[in-house]
Amino acid sequence: MERIVRKRQQHLSARHYIGRSTTDTALSHFVRLVADHFGFPMVLVNLLDSESQHTIAAVGMDTGIRPRSQTLCHQVVRDGRPTALQDMDVIPASAAHVRSYIGVPIIGREGIAIGSLCLLDTVPREFGNGQLEKLQSAAAVVRDQLELMRRVGSGPAGSTAEAEILAAAIDSGQIVPFYQPVVDLASGKVRSVEALARWHHPARGLIQPGGFVPLAEDSDIVIDLDLSILRQAATDLRHWQSRTPDLRLNVNLSARHLDNPDALVALTDTVLDAGISPDSIDFEVTETAALAFHPGGGHLLEDLRACGFRIVLDDFGTGFSSMEQVMNLPIDGIKLDRSVTAALGTLVGDAVLRALLGLADDLGFDSVIEGVETSEQAARARKSGCLLGQGFLFAPPLAANDFRQLLRMAG
Length: 411
Known about the structure:
By secondary structure, the protein is α/β, with parallel strands linked by helices.
């Protein structure tokens, strides 16, 4: 069973990179340097999913796809350690023209072998421990290049450089969650808290989400950003729940997660590793994101709910054209868009709020109204039947220490 699970994890990890790397000139150039350094006529960079080997860069051979079971690198990835074959009698018949083979695993970001860097020759070759260590170092360089391509994509040079800086900021902990409370409109008690990303830039100071989130959303960097915010926020929540056991956490979920094959494992493991139960977490997704990827409702959202997470539709009230589709999404609650809040106090605005709240109530959804900035807005929302509110009237997004103080003062 453990081997089956590991193979599944390896398959999912490899799928991060397959299809993103076949035209990368930097990787192709590096492979040629490896061939020159070691003096081997054939060098391959392979990624292996559960069925196939994808040769994404090569010297002396063609790139392409082959059945995994017919490849020399299958054992390297399966065992996660180097393999050296120097006798043609022990090399599979499918590669009978090869007399020497040395392959080392490429270890992905989850610590699982996702592929191999291998050297091949048609004559017997000796390969010492020192050379093996150098080849393993080269495999680490390949891994870093693959990770860069996965995260940054293939944008213009300027945007690529900016994306690299952003990726480094995530890795170094410069981007942290700020917290804005969601309060009971009747009692004023804090019921949950939304984690919102902020960048502590070493030169530019505190950068708001509009200054970096759009760049992250252009690539898979946003997946790493979301997971980093979730990891930090879940850790903070664990401490806060010691004083406020019923406190919940709201975290934004980018549309890219909905098309990511290992999103469920990554999100669940991140929460569990922080010592938090999934039933304390609300994932917020926009209507546009949910419908764009999964018009029928979305397997990921359903799977997350099955694990105990709640799904909340963010910015609700801005997509009336797809209301029927929204009603079929696997969600537990809605957050009413701030444009609805801004219209309160007008005949149409008040009527729209009552209609949306009535729809949510009929469908069994919880409701939160966002963008509450005045006492009048809070009063009108409460009078219309809304129970929970979020906005600057109650508190702006706060650093973790400041939010902890707010919790202490509240209760």
